[in-house]
Amino acid sequence: MITLGSIIAGIGLKSIVIPHGMITGGFSGAGILVFYYTKVFTPGIWYFILNIPVFIFGWVFISKRFLLYSIYGACVLTLVIDLVQFEIQVKDLMLAAMAGGAIIGAGSGIVFRSLGSAGGNDIISIILNQKFGVRIGTYNFSFNFVLFFFSFGLLDTDLILYSMAMSYITAQVIEYFMMLFNQRKLIFIISKNSRQIADEINNKLKRGATFLKGEGAYSGKKKDIIMTVANTFQIKRIEEIAFSIDPDAFLITENTFNVLGKGFSRRKIY
């Protein structure tokens, strides 16, 4: 996953972003910015140089394993940036920003789903996510906004604005890939036939359920409220089960950001 994601992100950087004079966010963007002004080394080498102090933070705050994975990811991304020699022919800058954001976001999202990173800002993102629960895409966009702000006066204003649009698209695509295979729905069912509905969910969908003790505010009657978690394909079947047993049932569906535990995703330990 680190290899695949780094290759995809590197292709987006070298074949779309750099040929159009745009910059990405994070350390790759800082490396490109330094390259534009110094014309020394290559964007890939600058990216690796900027990574050195961040690797130390990864070692101290996360783990040795994570650091080694991240060094590998940074090396792959560096090589791809320097070795890719083709350009994806996109003339319109807005389309280039959309395509670059989608490709880089997809690559970065795939890397984030592994137990490593591609180095640079990814390491800081994961430290903040693990320690303080800061969403990775949100932090990346905030960091990039500051980077782009300080680029005004140094680069063409239109290019900076297109780069900011690309950064926003990248952040959204990263978040999408982070949740891609872990989208679940939290469902509450209030019914006088809670036991029968729960048994049907267990037997037909092979999905667990939990009874929460409740009481009607108006009637004062004690009730067993069903709580279950299902994927998006099972929602309609749960509705059919609930309302075929009790047409007066009350069903609430909530989005969940992440579900960890048996039968769902495992907690990532970097």
Structural summary, described in words:
By secondary structure, the protein is an alpha+beta fold. The chain has two domains: 2-179, no CATH class; 185-255, Alpha-Beta Plaits (2-Layer Sandwich), CATH 3.30.70. It has helices at residues 2-17, 26-38, 43-61, 64-83, 93-112, 121-132, 136-149, 157-179, 194-205, 235-245; strands at 185-190, 210-215, 222-230, 250-255. A four-stranded antiparallel beta sheet has the order 2-3-1-4, with helices on one face. Strand 2 and strand 3 (222-230) form a beta hairpin. Helix 1 (2-17) packs antiparallel against helix 5 and helix 9 (194-205) packs antiparallel against helix 10. The chain starts with a helix and ends in a 15-residue tail after the last strand.
